[in-house]
Design brief:
The protein is built from six helices and three strands, in the order E-E-E-H-H-H-H-H-H. A hairpin with a 2-residue loop joins strand 1 and strand 2. About 20% of the residues are buried.
């Protein structure tokens, strides 16, 4: 099944004396720009008549190529989403790495374990409730800020909030460095 294509904007741009088409669209809440190809236009930027010379695109050809680019990007995003680990998986890997490789102190492991705990009778599990089941590559800085705001609203001290911020940063840094989050760049 082919993924649904996002809406796009086809723009005519110039760089020096050369004109080209560029497509802009959003995938996973990120704006993407891709060059479509050289434009078959007059020096004034108006479409030329006749068949475009080899390698150049008229408006219809540019729209066709833009839709091909959108399809490629949508398929790539769908594949990435299907293979992307959840935040919970990356956090658990981080905890194992911290214990086995880094040799963290028991107090650090206990504190991080409490912060990343699942909700149960003794912990509220706010981090895992907010981020646990989401693909880690889709978590945005806005999501982290919303979580930290919710912690502050629940009465957590500024020190606790800063510790959670540092822990979340460490989990994502570990995910990127260990290549669990290959194309994560937010």
């Amino acid at each position: 099944m082919q993924p649904s294509l996002p809406t796009y904007s086809l723009q005519l741009r110039a760089q020096g004396t050369r004109a080209f088409y560029e497509v802009m669209f959003r995938i996973d809440r990120r704006q993407v720009k891709r060059r479509v190809g050289p434009a078959w236009v007059t020096p004034a930027g108006k479409p030329r008549r006749g068949r475009p010379r080899d390698g150049c695109l008229d408006v219809a050809g540019a729209h066709d190529r833009a839709r091909e680019i959108l399809t490629e990007q949508a398929v790539k995003a769908a594949d990435l989403q299907a293979s992307s680990p959840t935040f919970r998986e990356v956090a658990l890997d981080y905890m194992r790495w911290l214990e086995r490789v880094k040799g963290a102190k028991p107090s650090t492991l206990a504190d991080h374990g409490y912060a990343l705990a699942e909700p149960n009778g003794t912990t509220n599990g706010q981090v895992m409730l907010a981020l646990g089941d989401r693909p880690a590559a889709e978590v945005t800085p806005r999501d982290v800020e919303n979580l930290l705001d919710a912690l502050a609203a629940s009465g957590a001290s500024p020190r606790t909030i800063n510790k959670r911020r540092a822990l979340l940063g460490a989990v994502f840094t570990y995910g990127v460095n260990s290549e669990r989050l290959k194309n994560w760049s937010r």
